[in-house]
Amino acid sequence: MQRCSVEIEAGRFRFKEGLEDIHMNIESALIKKIGSAGEKLHAARSRNDQVALDLRLFLRDEIGEIQKIIKRFQSIIVEMAEKYIDIVMPGYTHLQKAQPVLLSHHLLCYWEMLERDKNRFKECLKRVNVLPLGSGALAGTTLPIDREYVAELLNFPEVSNNSMDAVSDRDFVVEFLSASSILMTHLSRLSEELIPLTYNRDLQEDKEPVFDTVDTVKSCLGILNEMLPEIKFNKDAMRKAAEGGFSTATDLAEYLVKRGLPFRKAHEITGKIVRYCLDKGKGLTGLSMSEFKKFSSLIKDDVYSYLSVNASISNRSSYGGTSRKMILNRIKELKKREVEK
């Protein structure tokens, strides 16, 4: 068998169309090499459980490779987040400019997506890693086989409990394709942020077979792993964009809340202030204290220290926020986790 696999990988194995499939070809070659003992190869087996086994073995190896590539991708993101910790950029919601954020916060958003992707593949692997061999065509076999021993030889932690389910089960394939589709959606989101948004052929990938999915996922992850470290950010342009508009309006509302005003009321007052600024052609930091006082007596001189981009970022120090301190802590956690793994 080992020699047959070597010949197949080297392209020297001669397949005969008259022998129907790879199983019959290997059996025929084995009989030719070792004689009648090769005729025992198919005992207690069926194409059904052999095909199920082959697909599980294939996906088990490929999921492991995909997980490794994802892990490398995450490491690159952490490295970039640390490298560009001081770059500020505008955040967007509904295609409109929102609060300013750190670029590293934006990058680590994709680390979280990839972590969920990695966990989905990990969970999928549990269902893949079940031995179907020994189920026969669908009802098992009357021969005295030891499936637990075979599972040990093939490094399967579990043996299937129902022969009919074992040969018909393709849930693990659907799970793999689902996990891959979600991963590809995340990669598509990242790609769309790096190029002009347009229609992409990846929307048709749901029609592709499992082998094409494996190639596509690995190729895309590999390309991004090579590409991301080479990206150069226009720091000044990003900060200028983050400072535009009324990106710190939410900070003003929260400033009022800290002084005892209900959020809905604070939101209403902030809206009026923004409208006033638009009418006057001013920004929030361009208003005088007397102008602020027209809207609320709660506003004091310290309001200006809340309205800058840097203050907006540093004040968002709740867990999961964009403050420099939180991002550095998260980077530290992620780097520690990588070492522990």
Distance between the termini: 36 Å
Query: How would you sum up the global shape?
Result: elongated
Radius of gyration (Å): 30 Å
Structural class comes to mainly alpha
Low-confidence stretches: none
Kindly estimate the percentage of residues that lie in beta strands according to DSSP: under 5%
Would you count the extended β strands for me?
4
H/E order of the elements? HHHEEHEHEHHHHHHHHH
Strand order of the largest sheet: 1-2
| Largest beta-sheet characterization | 2 strands, antiparallel
Q: What is the helical fraction, as a range of percent? A: 55-70%
Mean pLDDT: 89
- The helix count comes to 14
Q: What kind of assembly state do the chains in view correspond to?
A: single chain
Question: What does this protein structure show overall?
Answer:
- The chain is mainly alpha-helical and 341 residues long.
- It contains 14 helices and 4 strands.
- Strands 1-2 form a two-stranded antiparallel ribbon. Strands 3-4 form a two-stranded parallel sheet.
- Strand 1 (88-93) and strand 2 (96-102) form a beta hairpin.
- Helix 4 packs antiparallel against helix 7, helix 7 packs parallel to helix 8 (210-227) and helix 10 packs across helix 11 (263-280).
- The mean pLDDT is 89.
List keywords for this structure.
two-stranded antiparallel sheet, single chain, elongated, 4 strands, 341 residues, two-stranded parallel ribbon, 5% strand, 14 helices
Briefly characterize the structure.
By secondary structure, this protein is mainly alpha-helical. The chain has 14 helices and 4 strands.
